[in-house]
Amino acid sequence: MTENSGRRNLRMPNSDEVFAVVTEHLGGNHVQLQCADGEERLGRIPGRMKYRTWIEQDDIVVAEPWDWQDEKATIEWRYTSQDADQLRREGHID
To answer: In which family does this protein belong, per the annotation (predicted)?
Structure first.
């Protein structure tokens, strides 16, 4: 975090990843995602995140759509509410 502006360097999506909003928690390790590219996908929470990072409805995440099934994606990162606010201020997400 820089001292003057309060801005943090955040993880941004790679070329094969998109921003997404969790619209519904389906139970287990599955969530419904509304992706920034306009698609609605079934998101899978990987085991490395399942018990360490709690993902809830309305969270902003980075999702990687599957190559072989575009209607599904793996969640790669979850932003805190402060990080999501910064992304909105900078115009990365709506």
So the answer is: Belongs to the eIF-1A family.
Q: What does the block give as tokens for 25?
A: 């928690």
The continuous run of DSSP H or E covering 75 comes out as strand 72-78
pLDDT confidence of residue 33: 95
Distances (CA, A) of 22 to 1, 3, 5, 9: 26, 32, 29, 23
Structure token pair of residue 18: 């998109």
Where is 65: in which H helix or E strand?
A: strand 60-65
Concatenating the DSSP letter of every residue in 12-36 gives: ---TT-EEEEEEEEEETTEEEEEET
Q: What is the pLDDT of residues 3-40, one digit of tens each?
A: 445 677 777 877 888 999 999 998 889 999 999 888 89
Q: Are 21 and 58 in contact (CB under 8 A)?
A: yes
